[in-house]
Amino acid sequence: MMKNIILIAVLFSTFLMSCSVEEEANIPNEYSSQNTNVTYTQLDYEIAELINSYRISQGLNALNILNEVSREAITHSQYMVNQGALSHDYFYLRSQNIIDAVNAENVSENVGFGFTNAQSLVNAWLNSEGHRQNIENPDFTDFGISTQQDEEGKNYFTNIFVKL
Predict the structure, then answer these.
(1) Which of 47, 48, 77, 141 could form a disulfide with 158 if both were Cys (CB 3.0 to 4.6 A apart)?
(2) How far apart are CA 42 and CA 70, in angstroms?
(3) What is the model's pLDDT at position 33?
């Protein structure tokens, strides 16, 4: 019984992750946001609206969507689709690219996988302490968002928060 509980906890934690630390050294050549076109899905807008509504309900400022930050989110979501796995791989690179592009003072991210609608994703993030801390951080001023689908129609999400 205890093994099943531990297994479920480990599997659940792989579906929801938040990150705000450095990492990595061997960056693949195809991992570059320089030529990424920024477009948003309806799901992206719904996620942004839900996050901002929640922040406002908590007495926090709404966050602006920045294309420069979304460019990094799009690249990472597509990377996760290509890898077939949820990850924070190359967060340090994304963070540094954002710092360089918009002079950000602080960068953090939430990632997710498999949710079919914005409400279920945002609820899961709000029920996870690390994700909720990113969403509720009063210092953040802007964010980037990306939803990418794999060939089976499963969604991969990257939400990057920044303080300018």
Answers:
(1) 77
(2) 14
(3) 55
The list of the chain residues with pLDDT below 50 reads 2-24
Q: Sheet containing 106-113: which strands, arranged edge to edge?
A: 16-19, 106-113, 155-163, 142-149, 64-65
pLDDT of residue 2: 44
Distance CA 97, CA 94 (A): 5
Q: What does the block give as tokens for 59?
A: 């007495």
Task: State the pLDDT at residue 59.
Answer: 97
Angle, CA 134 vertex, CA 49 and CA 125 arms, to 5°: 65
pLDDT of amino acid 18:
43
Q: CA 100, CA 12: separation in Å to the nearest integer? A: 34
pLDDT of residue 4: 42
- Cα distances from 93 to residues 20, 23, 71, in angstroms, run 12, 8, 13
Q: What is the 3-state secondary structure (H, E, C) of 78-101?
A: HHHHHHCCCCCCCHHHHHHHHHHH
Structure tokens at 126: 């709000």
Measured CA to CA, the distance from residue 51 to residue 48 in angstroms comes to: 5
